[in-house]
Amino acid sequence: MSATRRWFRQAVLMGCLAGLLFCPQAVVAVDKADPAAKIKELLQERLTIVQKIQKIIKLQYEKGMAGYDVLREADESVLKARLDLCGTKQDRVLVYQDMVHEAEAWHKLAEARFRSGFNMKQVDLLKSAAYLIECRIALERATAEK
Fold first, then answer.
1. φ and ψ at residue 46, rounded to 5 degrees
2. Which of 18, 26, 66, 120 fits 60 for a cystine, CB–CB 3.0-4.6 Å?
3. For residue 64, which phi and psi values (nearest 5 degrees)?
4. Domain residue limits at 119
């Protein structure tokens, strides 16, 4: 290695060290990115993914290709992801209201399928009724919390 090259490397290294010594907050700012913002970004990413999964499963359920348990699991994943993003009681109440409306719609579909004999077991009908009640209870609790 030539003397010029060695000198240049040393100068760059010394410049970097001087920067670290005289501007330590620059390093801290890079290392300590806002954890709350990163967490919110990850929570939003998770919500987007579970909503895509839910959409696929809903289509499969409507066509009789997926059972009620799979649909409910997808709905619960979306509910949990949405609740994790809530910042206020009002936000949580709105999420639970949406879930009650959705559970009501799926229960009506389950009832219609059961009556028509369309690949619907009585136990799945009862599960949809129980889930609707669970959503209503969660809404009442969220509304009552201080």
1. -60, -45
2. 66
3. 80, 15
4. 34-144
Proportion of the chain above pLDDT 90, given as a percent:
47
Regarding whether 51 and 14 lie in a shared domain, the answer is: no
Q: Which amino acid is at 106?
A: W
Residues 52 and 82 in one domain: yes
Report CA dihedral (130, 136, 140, 142) to the nearest 10 degrees. Answer: 100
pLDDT at 8: 46
- Which residue type is seen at 75? D
The owner of tokens 């005289």 is: 22
* pLDDT tens per residue across span 55-111: 999 899 888 788 888 988 998 899 999 999 999 999 999 999 999 998 998 899 888
Distance CA 74, CA 49 (A): 11
CA dist., res. 130 & res. 132, Å (int) = 5
**Residue 75 in contact with residue 63, Cβ under 8 Å?**
no
Give the C-alpha separation, 55 to 25, whole Å: 46
| Spatial contact of 110 and 128, defined as CB atoms under 8 Å apart | yes
Residues 20 and 38 in one domain: no
The 10 Å Cβ neighbour count of residue 51 is 15
